[in-house]
């Protein structure tokens, strides 16, 4: 039996839920967010279309057998940059302000959101070099294009 394990980071796309949807809603509504200083971390993301494309590639490419493969959009960006790009796609600037990391961490720990703090401030990068070389695969949809589709879907849905 041949198996393939695909390890994605945060998967997003139209009708995304949880924290990503909350972030989109806050940006759209113009809520100020304390993430202006979160520029040194790097986050890997993967659009659902890119994940599905890799799954298809694994089904047909013999080199995928018995591999553990990482997948992403191929561009790692900071939390602040994610917020800025989503805002640009929504046509609403992300209203970011600076709050010292220690203050925000303390507040989030006090209200039981230390996991959210970690996801926003820490890095989580995946290296897709092996996946790209082994399968001759590259993410077909660029990060900005995927974020635009996400924003367009949000604007067309009843989230407003």
Short description, anyone?
The chain has 160 residues and is mainly α.
* Distance linking N and C termini: 48 Å
Helix percent band: 40-55%
Q: Tell me the total number of β-strands.
A: 4
Form type? globular
CATH superfamily: NAD(P)-binding Rossmann-like Domain
Low-pLDDT sequence parts: none
Architecture (CATH level 2) name: 3-Layer(aba) Sandwich
Neighbour order of strands in the largest sheet: 1-4
- Quickly count the domains: 1
Give me the CATH fold name.
Rossmann fold
Largest sheet: 2 strands, parallel
SSE string, helix = H, strand = E? EEHEHEHHHHH
Walk me through the structure:
The chain has helices spanning 18-29, 48-60, 79-90, 101-110, 114-121, 129-135, 143-156; strands spanning 4-7, 10-12, 45-47, 67-70. Helix 1 (18-29) links the parallel strand 2 and strand 3 (45-47). Helix 3 (79-90) packs across helix 7. The strands form two sheets. A two-stranded parallel ribbon has the order 1-4. 25% of the residues are buried. Helix content is 48%, strand content 9%. The protein has one domain (4-155): NAD(P)-binding Rossmann-like Domain (Rossmann fold, 3-Layer(aba) Sandwich). The protein contains seven helices and four strands. By secondary structure, the chain is mainly alpha-helical. The model has no long low-confidence stretch (mean pLDDT 93). It is globular and about 50 Å long.
